[in-house]
Structure formats: structure tokens, C-alpha cells
């Protein structure tokens, strides 16, 4: 079966498409956590619709046991640079982030964050993300968050190398 033609609406995000692996391991920190590292595989694809599909799968760097997981969709408002990022996470958080794509940079901030009733405290209240394609052709992601006990603080930074288009 032939791959679908990319919908022109998502063309401004085509630089994100592919399978990406963290290289080197990602770094995590937060005032309430011990610093940590993680491996992550990212898969961003399209099926011809005006939306990208994504999954982020993090693993412990030594044991390779699964850690954080999230999946969802990235949608552009037609004829604009406005972007919505809709995500469901294995931690019980569901979020909608909105922002803009400018060239090879996507900056988004949570518009709404919902969680399951028995989610672990402290609760995440706001998230910001920045994706950018650097001069070496690697994808970088920086995630910051605010919780019920901490102000907006950088939480994750990871650089990915592309392994498949």
C-alpha cells in the first residue's frame, strides 16, 4: 500500500515527521525530584489528514523499563501558524496545549489540563513545550511545568536524532 499524501495543512510541521531516538539520554529535574536521565523514542507520522499523530515512549537508561508514555495529535489551524497539541499520558493527565510554529520551532503552552481523580500529587497545573530542529538536524524538546506546589520550572530537556524519515 502506498503511503498517504501529506495534507498541505500540516506542511509547516513536516520537519517533525519521522522516528527519533534520544541522543544523548534526556535529562529531567524538578524541585521535588532527584535529577534523572531517560531514553526516549518519538514517532511522529501522518495518515493524510490535516493532523500529525505522535507517541513519546521513555525508558530507564539502565534497565530499559518503560517510564513515561504519551500519545496524541498535533493540529494546525488552516492558513495560520496556530497549533494545538492534544496529549494523553500514562500518568493520568490529558492536556491541550496551544501555540505557534515559526520555521523549525514550535512553542506551546497548556490551554487545559485534566487528570484522573486519583492522580498523584502534586498536580500539574500548567505545561509549556518547545520543539526545535537544530542546525545539526536534531530535534530538541524542552518541557517546563508548574504544579500545585511549584512555580513554572524546567522539567525535561532532550535531543533526538532521526532514525527513519
TrEMBL record:
Cofactor(s) this protein requires: heme b
Role description: Heme-binding protein able to scavenge peroxynitrite and to protect free L-tyrosine against peroxynitrite-mediated nitration, by acting as a peroxynitrite isomerase that converts peroxynitrite to nitrate. Therefore, this protein likely plays a role in peroxynitrite sensing and in the detoxification of reactive nitrogen and oxygen species (RNS and ROS, respectively). Is able to bind nitric oxide (NO) in vitro, but may act as a sensor of peroxynitrite levels in vivo, possibly modulating the transcriptional activity residing in the N-terminal region.
CDD domains registered for this protein in UniProt: lipocalin_heme-bd-THAP4-like
Record's protein name: Peroxynitrite isomerase THAP4
Location in the cell: Cytoplasm; Nucleus
Subunit annotation: Homodimer.
Database matches in PANTHER family: PEROXYNITRITE ISOMERASE THAP4, THAP4 PROTEIN
Domain THAP4-like heme-binding: 10-162
InterPro entries: Calycin, Nitrobindin, THAP4-like_heme-bd
Family as reported in the entry's similarity comment: In the C-terminal section; belongs to the nitrobindin family.
Pathway: Nitrogen metabolism
Keyword Cell inner membrane recorded: no
Transmembrane residue ranges: none
GO CC annotation, single: cytoplasm
Chief location of this protein within or outside the cell: cytoplasm
Catalyses which reaction(s): peroxynitrite = nitrate
Annotated keywords: Cytoplasm, DNA-binding, Heme, Iron, Isomerase, Metal-binding, Nucleus, Phosphoprotein, Zinc, Zinc-finger
SUPFAM superfamilies the UniProt entry points to: Lipocalins
GO molecular function annotation: DNA binding; isomerase activity; zinc ion binding
Pfam families membership: THAP4_heme-bd
Amino acid at each position: 500500500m502506498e503511503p498517504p499524501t501529506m495534507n498541505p495543512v500540516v506542511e509547516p510541521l513536516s520537519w517533525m515527521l519521522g522516528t527519533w531516538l534520544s541522543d544523548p539520554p534526556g535529562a529531567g529535574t524538578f524541585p521535588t525530584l532527584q535529577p534523572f536521565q531517560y531514553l526516549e523514542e518519538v514517532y511522529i507520522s501522518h495518515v493524510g489528514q490535516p493532523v500529525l499523530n505522535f507517541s513519546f515512549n521513555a525508558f530507564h537508561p539502565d534497565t530499559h523499563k518503560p517510564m513515561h508514555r504519551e500519545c496524541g495529535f498535533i493540529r494546525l489551524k488552516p492558513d495560520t501558524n496556530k497549533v494545538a497539541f492534544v496529549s494523553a499520558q500514562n500518568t493520568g493527565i490529558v492536556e491541550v496545549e496551544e501555540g505557534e510554529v515559526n520555521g523549525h520551532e514550535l512553542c506551546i503552552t497548556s490551554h487545559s489540563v485534566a487528570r484522573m481523580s486519583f492522580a498523584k500529587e502534586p498536580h500539574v497545573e500548567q505545561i509549556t513545550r518547545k520543539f526545535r530542529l537544530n542546525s545539526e538536524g536534531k530535534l530538541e524538546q524542552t518541557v517546563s511545568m508548574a504544579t500545585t506546589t511549584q512555580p513554572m520550572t524546567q522539567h525535561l530537556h532532550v535531543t533526538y536524532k532521526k532514525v527513519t524519515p
